[in-house]
């Protein structure tokens, strides 16, 4: 679920997103408090990573908590920048993005982990009999995304399986999938719970290599972020929002098919006709280790994964501070996430 260039949010939408939550005021007619407005920014068109938020909206969990949640559509401004700047109270943001963004000076913090494990994978066409492991990608063409992080990941996987880590990258962004199908590139990166399922449905399945099975540290790939500023100003609102979202993702894990229907019905323009993709995606995400994991509070942080993935970022020179200087010593990753607002 990568980010193509599309039109930015209008200035008016950004301005409305900038308003912080105010204390609920009673209505003259009923004497009951008005719901508290909360804004949530998507990182892409609606998809199964967002299911818990839409379930909470559709099943009334937000309403029960006294919240009026506005889901902001994906825009060209990255979610971490929207949240850090106060244009959104919460938004989608995975572990790696938080580690990169907060180190670079953004005011972002992870408050909920949507997936407990990595969902990305390196893929080739299923009929490539000459490729049995990432080591066989030595010297081949990578349909990439122009990211130093992704290049380091690919190099690590090739080296882990016995190669030297040499390959050629052609930056194609989302065009990488078409290039892979046509044979223009040899391999690319995919999301096992979305693009890879879509490829299977369309009869062009991939041969895949999970990152964490080939030398990469595991990571809580998808999550929800807020800012220290918002959490300090509105801790009780944050607690209500995170608890409602937690209920939403737990419902999706327990009832993936019903959650799929709710997600599609809430987004007919973007997901209408994609019922099979959404259902199969949610059935995959409902398995142990993704939306939920045995013995783990739903949505909680795994400190070990933050430490190990952070070490990878430091060792490969991926992290930079707010002045653009490469960070050579890991910060205290415990400052980058919190479980304070989870319902335990």
TrEMBL record:
One GO term under biological process is: thiamine biosynthetic process
A Pfam family assignment: NMT1
The family database entries (Gene3D superfamilies) matched by this protein are listed as: Periplasmic binding protein-like II
Give a yes or no for keyword Translocase in this entry. Answer: no
> Which residues are in the SsuA/THI5-like domain?
47-259
| InterPro entries membership | NMT1/THI5 (IPR027939), SsuA/THI5 (IPR015168)
What is the annotated signal peptide range for this record?
1-22
Task: Please state what the protein is called.
Answer: ABC-type nitrate/sulfonate/bicarbonate transport system, substrate-binding protein
PANTHER family per record: 4-AMINO-5-HYDROXYMETHYL-2-METHYLPYRIMIDINE PHOSPHATE SYNTHASE THI11-RELATED, THIAMINE BIOSYNTHESIS PROTEIN HI_0357-RELATED
State the coiled-coil residue ranges: none
Q: Which UniProt keywords apply?
A: Signal
Give the species this sequence originates from.
Answer: Tessaracoccus oleiagri
Sorted alphabetically, which SUPFAM superfamilies does this protein's record hold?
Periplasmic binding protein-like II
């Amino acid at each position: 679920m990568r980010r193509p260039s599309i039109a930015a949010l209008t200035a008016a939408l950004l301005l409305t997103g900038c308003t912080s939550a105010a204390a609920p005021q009673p209505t003259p007619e009923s004497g009951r408090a008005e719901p508290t407005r909360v804004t949530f920014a998507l990182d892409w068109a609606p998809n199964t990573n967002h299911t818990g938020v839409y379930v909470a909206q559709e099943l009334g969990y937000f309403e029960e908590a006294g919240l009026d949640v506005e889901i902001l559509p994906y825009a060209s401004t990255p979610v971490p920048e929207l949240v850090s700047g106060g244009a959104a109270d919460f938004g989608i943001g995975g572990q790696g993005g938080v580690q990169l963004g907060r180190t670079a000076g953004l005011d972002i913090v992870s408050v909920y982990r949507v997936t407990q494990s990595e969902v990305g994978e390196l893929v080739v066409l299923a009929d490539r009999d000459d490729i049995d492991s990432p080591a066989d990608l030595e010297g081949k063409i990578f349909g990439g995304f122009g990211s130093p992080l992704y290049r380091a990941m690919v190099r690590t996987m090739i080296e882990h399986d016995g190669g030297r880590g040499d390959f050629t990258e052609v930056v194609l962004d989302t065009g990488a999938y078409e290039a892979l199908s046509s044979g223009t590139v040899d391999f690319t990166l995919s999301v096992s719970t979305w693009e890879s399922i879509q490829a299977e449905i369309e009869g062009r399945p991939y041969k895949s290599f999970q990152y964490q099975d080939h030398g990469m540290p595991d990571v809580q790939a998808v999550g929800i972020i807020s800012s220290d500023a918002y959490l300090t100003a509105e801790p009780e609102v944050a607690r209500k929002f995170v608890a409602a979202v937690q209920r939403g993702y737990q419902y999706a894990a327990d009832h993936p098919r019903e959650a799929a229907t709710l997600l599609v019905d809430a987004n007919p323009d973007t997901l209408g006709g994609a019922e099979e993709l959404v259902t199969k995606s949610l059935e995959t995400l409902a398995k142990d280790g993704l939306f939920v994991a045995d013995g783990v509070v739903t949505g909680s942080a795994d400190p070990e994964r933050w430490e190990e993935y952070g070490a990878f970022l430091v060792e490969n020179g991926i992290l930079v501070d707010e002045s653009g200087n490469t960070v050579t010593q890991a910060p205290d990753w415990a400052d980058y996430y919190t479980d304070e607002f989870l319902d335990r």
